[in-house]
Amino acid sequence: MRLGGQLLVVASSPATAKAILKTHDRVFSGRFLLSICYAIPGTLQSYTMRSTSTECSGMFEYANCIIMDLFSSLREVESKGKVRKEKVLMEMMEYLVEKEGEVVKLDDVLKVTVCNIFANVVASRNLLGYEGWGNGQMVKDLVDEIGKMMATPGLVDLFPVLRRVDFWGKRDGKILQRKVMCVWEGILKEGRSRKSVDLNTYILLIT
């Protein structure tokens, strides 16, 4: 069955599904991503995006090897990242304890926590705050926008024949790219000024 550009395989039983996966493991190793993911300028040249290809080709395996090599070379960043992640999680727990008996938006709390974990690993600082978004309002809006885009199929996802004339998708991709670059520009500048940060961290971000 096809749901737009996504191929859906239906098995009659768990045993049949297991047999299909064993026989066609390489074919089903691809990842389906919405068209908006490929509409962002530069994503087709990104090794990270190539590693989430809909096909498990030679490039798929090559990109995965490169990314794994980058991760394995970031031992120092990884060890420091663990400490920073625990720090952010402790801040989250302290905030929830302070709010005991009050209504708390867990969705917002989780967004702040995830963004701060990533920002602490890369730049050793929090990106957002729990009490009032302040300067992080743009980041919050960007996270919300990306979440909605990734969860909402576009016309091209339902009608792949329109891919060549997907001008609206390309427009949205460029807008999203500008917003992401605007958010990360300050963080990367701060990170580059820190001598203790491994260069491979930025290679990983670029890919």
UniProtKB/TrEMBL annotation:
InterPro entries: Cyt_P450_sf (IPR036396). It comes from the Eukaryota. Signal peptide: none annotated. Keywords: Heme, Iron, Metal-binding, Monooxygenase, Oxidoreductase. Its cofactor is heme. PANTHER family: CYTOCHROME P450, CYTOCHROME P450, FAMILY 76, SUBFAMILY C, POLYPEPTIDE 5-RELATED. This is (S)-N-methylcoclaurine 3'-hydroxylase isozyme 2. The lineage of its organism: Eukaryota, Viridiplantae, Streptophyta, Embryophyta, Tracheophyta.
